[in-house]
Amino acid sequence: MNSYAILNQSKYQRVSDGTTRLLLEDCDPTLYKLILVWSQLGDFDSLEYAWWLQREAKKLTDKKLVIRAVGIGDLGSGKRFCEYTGFPSERLFVDPNGELHRQLNLYSGLNFSVPGLSQSQKAWLNLILMCAGIGSPGTLMEVFRGYKGDRQAPQLIEDDEMIRGTPLPAFKGSFFRLAGGSGFQRPFELATLRLRNMIEVLTNWNTYVPNSAYLTQRGATFLFNNKEQLVYEHRDPGILGFAANMSEPLSFLSLIGI
Predict the structure, then answer these.
(1) CA 160, 166, 172 angle in degrees (round to 5)?
(2) Percent of the chain clearing pLDDT 90 (strictly above)
(3) What is the architecture of the domain spanning 3-256?
């Protein structure tokens, strides 16, 4: 069975109203469909992906594209995720146990086991190892990119934007000009956004992660045209690997003129 057939037959709870619905049942068949299969809703990748979508929201209102996302969690984690990221709740569905990820044969993460560990403890151990780059190619390089900056990536924080939600006192985005200028991703800019996401999740851990057994599960991106044909696919190889081009994660949408 191909990926479109699997997605077209999948039924999960929609965050906006709690009803169980088919993912694609209300999608205009004449439009392109961007389907995002996210990891845990408290995962770095899911939060950062949603941030990019909100950053480019004006471009994504183009009538040729429908967006749907499925993340591992429950209605509580879905609602918190949407409140924090601004991702539209009517576009988000929740999968409590990663069933869709298994149907699509997505990478479940490192599977190192120690006798006597519970499923949750095993997931935590493997998550820590993956954060260190084991069984998660590209993760350490991507972490370092967040600190050192990236001249191939756009500026992420506007000069007049107030940065809150970190252990530091609130400060303006213009601070990053001191680290190297403007017009590109400056040193510590992306790391600051990731720190803010981390604080948000840790302070609301039980909401975001109702079941820690799926901490290592990775996601994917699927783009279909109006003939149900796969135009683009990316399967996440590890943590912070949710895009083929992490400097501009949504650059693949240029395939359809967005």
Answers:
(1) 15
(2) 79
(3) 3-Layer(aba) Sandwich (3.40)
